[in-house]
Amino acid sequence: MTLLDAVLSLSEAPARDEALQRILRALAQASAADALSVLTAADDGSVGVAAQIGLSPAALGLSFQPAEHPRLRRATLAAGPLRFLDPTEPDPYSGWLLGSAGEMHPIHACMAVPLRVQGRLAGLLTLDACDPRGLHGLHDEDARVFAGLCAGALRLDGGPAFAVEAPRLVGGGAGDAALPGRSAAMRRVEREIAVLAPLSVPVLVTGETGVGKELIARALHERSPRAGRALVVVNCAAIPAQLVESELFGHRKGAFTGATAARAGRFEAARGGTIFLDEIGELPLAAQAQLLRVLQEGEIQPVGEDRPRRVEARVVAATNRDLRREVAEGRFRADLFHRLWVYPICVPPLRERREDIPALCERFAAELAAELGAARVDLTEPALRALTEGAWPGNVRELKNAVERAVLRRTMAEGSAAGRALVLRREDVDVEGAGDDAAERGAPGCPGAPRVAPAAGERLWLASAPPDAPVEPLADALERARREAFARAFRAAGGNAAVAGRLLGLSRSFAYKEAVRLGLIPAPEPRKR
């Protein structure tokens, strides 16, 4: 199991204590620690063991006063991960660490990370190893990630560790599109976004051209605490090599020919927010060295200046290149690659998630229909099947272009789209890799397909409903769908009405009242007078 897989497995933990235990188990897989624990802070300033692995069972519930334990006191005041390097310094867990045979062992390597919720100390995450070098393989950035997960579990105060909701993937420009999470591959991407968005670790988004990597970057930004600040998008491939450093890091007046005034770079513009470096594999090696300094030290050095400047911005990068091969061939720095390759998100190509194609087609057709003034755009079954079976080497971007061409062809064939319902037929669609005999083969369509209208001699495709299914009254169908949506939301939220309301886009009070009406949670008992 990879570190990211272990982190993602936490997203469905139902309660605080179980969530903390699952976090520690995941961290145990990702490190060589012999013992791990989460201590929670009490109102009197003490910290108590709330969850642990590798300590004596009697350690659960232990309480310490940080003032009496130098390591705990320093850890509660630290800004980030703290490693204890002095073996002579007393450790509060000395004698509590179990060996493989159950005997007690001294502790030689120790680490602690403060857990903060809304700026206040909520507890500590601790790691201990018998081997003095046992924690050398755990990077501080990884420890921060797990500390953030622990803080999230504490913040929900008994609720689920995470409320994983579908990311708000909204288009940001021509060729962009929302990425529905109907396929298993895209549901995994949604879970990765949900876990990584609140953190500050760099993220590398990989995938073929046109899969929607910028949309992933936008989702990471919009669901992060930085959402109120700038998201700066930089196309590294579009910047001339001689101007890359100036564009990213800025320059002072007179730094080079043509620098008639000082100019702030893109990192300055993204201060406090997110900078998205698209096609990062195109960066020249000199700029890669500066970028590495930003990631490691949080510093940039504008061209022509002697002193570096502090800047804080989250880096999300994307590439369609094989960066491992680029490293092997000397075109990409190995140290920068490993710094970016902390938690990669791989967006699968469209041919590996064909069940997403019908919903995408429906969305693209509806967007263009609105521009043309058409009442709606429907698809016949052969047209939809051809789109679903296409090769799509250009992925989502190419699919969008194909749907728009089909809509425009049908509009021109009929003379006008204003106020009309357009029906896209097989002859309107030009798809590379789809068989021309698709209409005759009778292959089944994709589950969850959009509504398609029958043309002459063509039958109607109604998602996955059998052809003789009884028609349900609309009010009953809507009520059933409403009940299912609320039931899913409350299950995901562990019964927490506020979290369920956020998942549904509703207020807590309305979500609670509606769940009571639907019989999903018991009605409150009347107050006694």
What value does the Rg take, in angstroms? 28 Å
Whole-number mean pLDDT: 78
> What share of the residues does DSSP label as strand, in percent?
5-15%
Number of strands: 17
Low-confidence stretches: 10-14, 157-178, 435-469
Structural class: alpha/beta
Question: Helicity range of the residues?
Answer: 25-40%
Strand order of the largest sheet: 3-2-1-8-7-4
Largest sheet: 6 strands, antiparallel
Overall form:
globular
Give the termini separation. 57 Å
Number of helices: 18
Question: How would you describe this structure to a colleague?
Answer:
With 529 residues, the protein is α/β, with parallel strands linked by helices. 36% of the residues lie in helices and 14% in strands. The chain is built from 18 helices and 17 strands. The strands form five sheets. Strands 3-2-1-8-7-4 form a six-stranded antiparallel beta sheet, with helices on both faces. A five-stranded parallel beta sheet has the order 10-11-14-9-15. Helix 12 crosses helix 14. The longest helix is centred in the C-terminal third of the chain and has 20 residues, at 395-414.
Entry summary:
The chain is of the alpha/beta class. It contains 18 helices and 17 strands. Strands 3-2-1-8-7-4 form a 6-stranded antiparallel sheet, sandwiched between helices. A 5-stranded parallel sheet has the order 10-11-14-9-15. It has a two-stranded antiparallel ribbon with strand order 5-6.
